[in-house]
Amino acid sequence: MLDMNKKLDYKELLQKRDVKLLFYISRILFRNSLFYLYPVYMFLQFCKVLNQKKKYSLQTINEDIIYQVVEPSDKHQIDENYTVIINNPFLTGKANAVLKVEHEGKIIQVYVKPLCSESVEKYVIFASKTLLFNISNTTDLMLNQRIEHSLTGTIRGTSTGKIGFAKEIHLAVINSPLELDNIVLDSLVKNYFQKPKLICENSVIEINMKIYLMDIPSSMTKVFNANDKVYFKCTKVLSNVESNSKISGKYAVLGETTIKQVANIQSFLPPCIKMKPLLFDVRKVEKNHIQSSKCPSGLEHYAYELEAAVKPFLTKKLVMNPAFLITGKKGSGKEIIISSLAAKFGMHFYKITNFDVTAHVYAQNEVKLKNVFFNAKLYAPCILYMKNFENYEKNNEGLTDERIISHFTSGLKTLFANNKFPVILFCSSNDDKISARLKREFLEIFKINPPTEEERTKIIEWLFQYHHLTYHEDLTEVVKKTNTFLFEDMNTLVKLAKSQQTCSKKMNTLTSENLLSALDYMHLHHNQNIGAPKVPKVQWDDIGGLKDVKEEIIKTINFPLKHPEFVNSTGLRRFGILLFGPPGTGKTLLAKAVATECNLCFLSVKGPELLNMYIGQSEENIREVFERARAASPCIIFFDELDSLAPNRGVSGDSGGVMDRVVSQLLAEMDGLNEKATVFIIGATNRPDLIDPALLRPGRFDKLLYVGPAMDFASRLSVLKALTRNFNLNDEVRLEDIVKLCPSNISGADFYGICAESWMHAVRRTIQQCENGPKDVRNFTEKDVEVGTDDFIYALRSVKPSITSKDLMYFEKLKREISSNQ
Ligand code: ADP
């Protein structure tokens, strides 16, 4: 019985008629329990009904997130094709729910499996792309992409008992370049339907090989990528009981359901729509970033360009052939852009390298190409991607073969004719060396340029997401140092940094230290690939004397850097400096210090390195150097021993006039440097008189600076001071006295020799002392080595000036001649 006193407390509330009625019923229904239970119960029911009526917007998530939230052992229990993630407390613990969506005037109701989490956005149903594709069930791609933003639906829980089991289902494999054999397919289907899975007629199911392919010998699975997915279409669902339920979906499970495989079909796949990164923490997974797009962020604008070019061919039949060429350096991300495009359109991605279509004999070549085109038609809708296309037209001897070209062009006609689904051809090439006849076949040519600083920042951030890494520091410094890096280089950088991180506790958090040390490693070991330019580490303090030359160079370089507007508008500028002087006087050192001081990239090229025995290759090398420099702009190209690279034309006695062509190429490149790229050229030579005079004309190496040995006392002292900067000198050492002891015309390199020798002498002496004394030699550090005057005197005994007075006179004369000309 209810306590009458309590009722008095709620007197006011009970005045209301509805509430009164509610309590009245409650008292009759629940005589033996508390009077407020019924109203609370009613209130909850009311909320539930309201909640069911509430429209949720549908959004796609990556399927992988669904796998991540379950225990590894439960992975194949989960029904990834029908799971939705939702923030709805009324669905917690429910095994099934009915999702009702209105689409194009039709009402679609499907059974789904709800996975509840309070951490995801409210009033949004996150569904896999396959579920969304099945709901919209349309082959119209454009519509499919729009649907993402427009689909809304309601959801209510239901009990499992309501969903019956199918008696028989018919599955058709969707043709794809994977070409799996029956053993694999059987095993996939068997494993997938081991546990009851929801299935609807005319729906596509996606089976992840990584999860459902465990009983196939590993030797067979090697051929596939672990992340590959196989798509089936369920063409028929038969059930025992005739049901007139409007909700589509039945359970299918081995033992209960007969699964029949019917003839393969062609179909679009669920398109990969750009997904929102989802912060999600159900069960074990704590805040997980799921990659938002398949295309790296910095490269997205290329993807948009390609998309715009491809789109018209997907909806309409046009007279033109959808063949496109995409050029860009190796590793610039051509493949990832195109494969992301295929995923976005739900098309198959059929990749062919030129090895797949070339053979020893021409006839075989022809057959192979025919096969490729035939397959492409079979896998349609697909994007056929032919890699390394520049090698395609060449025969075994590396010469252009007209037969291959004509065969390709005639093959294209059959490739694009009579297709029910679109076939798009993309050919990629690392350079532009494709014959005009082949180029004509392409509707458009796209070029992937090296990424800019901003693009590199985006790429690196995308890569962090892709590799599931977190990074909290500022990226500017790292990105600045990745000049000339392409997409693949950035990927290697992140992977290297990650590999260094594995030993530490915070495995998925990178620091700038990791990245910088990975960068150093790459510069050291991947020099060839990444073009090598980097900012050197030579400071002004490392150079003694040469003050005038130093100032002159800085003046020439710093001004256009700081005020590009004055220089670019007129187009008149001097960017070539030629340093000349006897060997070992610090020319290289000077160029490096300039690069460090102005924070420029430094591309050091030794003349003889560029020369190659193959015809045309030396010129190509020069072209490449300039291209690299342009990509690394602002940059200094330093040509050491320029006399060997650019001797007087017509004088050198090499056969075939290779050197003449090299000089001409160098001239052409120097003239071709435009305002867009800030590239400075510094040359160094011991013999300026041997250099082709055309190179010394205005606009080229028009500033000649003499770098001579330190002659006066002050500059000699400063050279010695610079070289002994890091020495632990004895208190009694007076560098002034030592300079006085040095021979008169010695170069910086000779000074370096003296310092090195005295250092070694000091080391030997200290070790000897130590061996006789108490201290262990192994505990020695360089700080224990004290260099004394005796060491210098010892070193001076063996020094021989490398510059003779004859040399000096020759250079003085040259200097006078040149300065009178300038
Ligand atoms: P070059 O290019 O003129 O032949 P380098 O610049 O390669 O000569 O010099 C060789 C070495 O001599 C340098 O690595 C440096 O150690 C030393 N050296 C030359 N000139 C100087 C200088 N002015 N100050 C300090 N060190 C010098």
Explain what this protein looks like in three dimensions:
It is a single chain. The chain is of the alpha/beta class and 822 residues long. It has 33 helices and 24 strands. The chain has a 6-stranded mixed β-barrel with strand order 1-5-2-4-3-6, surrounded by 4 helices. The protein has a 5-stranded parallel β-sheet with strand order 14-15-16-13-17, with helices on both faces. Strands 21-22-23-20-24 form a 5-stranded parallel β-sheet, with helices on both faces. Strand 3 and strand 4 form a beta hairpin. It binds adenosine-5'-diphosphate. Adenosine-5'-diphosphate (ADP) binds next to helix 24, helix 29 and helix 31.
- Order of strands, main sheet, comes to 1-5-2-4-3-6
Structural class: alpha/beta
Outline type: elongated
Summarize the biggest pleated sheet. 6 strands, mixed, barrel
Could you name the key traits of this structure?
five-stranded parallel sheet, alpha/beta, 822 residues, six-stranded mixed beta barrel, 24 strands, disordered N terminus, elongated, binds adenosine-5'-diphosphate
What's the short version?
With 822 residues, the chain is α/β, with parallel strands linked by helices. The protein is built from 33 helices and 24 strands. The protein starts with a helix and ends with a helix.
Furnish the topology, listing elements before pairings:
Layout: H1 4-9, H2 11-14, H3 17-29, H4 37-53, E1 56-61, H5 63-69, E2 83-86, E3 96-103, E4 106-116, E5 124-128, H6 129-136, H7 141-150, E6 152-158, E7 166-174, H8 182-192, E8 197-199, E9 203-208, H9 209-212, H10 218-221, E10 229-239, E11 250-252, E12 258-265, H11 300-315, E13 323-328, H12 334-345, E14 348-352, H13 354-357, H14 362-379, E15 382-386, H15 402-416, E16 423-429, H16 436-439, E17 444-448, H17 453-466, E18 470-471, H18 476-480, H19 487-501, E19 509-510, H20 512-525, H21 527-530, H22 547-562, H23 564-570, E20 576-580, H24 587-597, E21 601-606, H25 607-610, H26 617-631, E22 635-640, H27 642-645, H28 658-672, E23 679-685, E24 703-706, H29 713-723, H30 735-741, H31 748-772, H32 789-797, H33 805-821
Parallel strand pairs: 1-5, 2-4, 7-12, 13-16, 13-17, 14-15, 15-16, 18-19, 20-23, 20-24, 21-22, 22-23
Antiparallel strand pairs: 1-6, 2-5, 3-4, 3-6, 7-10, 8-11, 9-10
